[in-house]
Sequence to fold (257 residues):
Amino acid sequence: MLECRALGKTYQVDGARVEALVDIDIELPEGSFTVLVGPSGCGKTTLLRLFSGLASPTSGEIRHHSSRSRNGKCGFSHVGYVFQEPRLMPWLTVSQNVGFGLKGKISHEEWMRRVGEVIELMGLAAFSQARPDQLSGGMASRVGLARALVGKPNLLLLDEPFAALDAMTRRRLQGELTAIWLERRPTVVFVTHDVEEAVLLADTVYRMQDGRIQERYDIDAPRLRDPTSKHITSLRRAILDGFEGKKHCQQLFLQQA
Fold:
């Protein structure tokens, strides 16, 4: 569904050339669940922005269904993007936030149906008329995910959407996201610095560091996955061991503690 070849992204910062991404080769089969894992600043979010079309590569190309995308950008007809923070509009209700992107594009009846459907799917029916300041962190994250799903995306991009949540809420939302993916099968790219989260969710994990993809891990385990199982813990250990030097491993362990 999506193929990148020799993809690169360079920025100029205070007159200095910064290589955010270098020679990225990656393939995302249709309906796959891919996780990009690595420490902060390794290029994960930059790559997500290129996939979404919010930014253009400096070099290389992105192909969608074997066709080169326009201006180097990703050419998906429907892309859903979930940011690190829910970014809800405080003056709108849950329903209005979820359906904001569809307003004026479809009939009111279709808008009501689709918004109601995804709110029910995310377990938010009792809060459809609530304002963002009346929601818990977990519910706000659900609204952010519902807003991305309501457009029925064929590509769903998630940038550390559960990073700010407590462990129990995060685990519950990981399960809900997996269930939604199993039902709807969008192509998912999920960014995280949490290695355990990566192996619990992904078909394929790409370990990133210093703007490069260092290694690929194919996760062959049934869902829903037990984080305490020997297979999952060994995969987590293998990925952590792949990061160069004790400093990176210690940093990741501290982030996940």
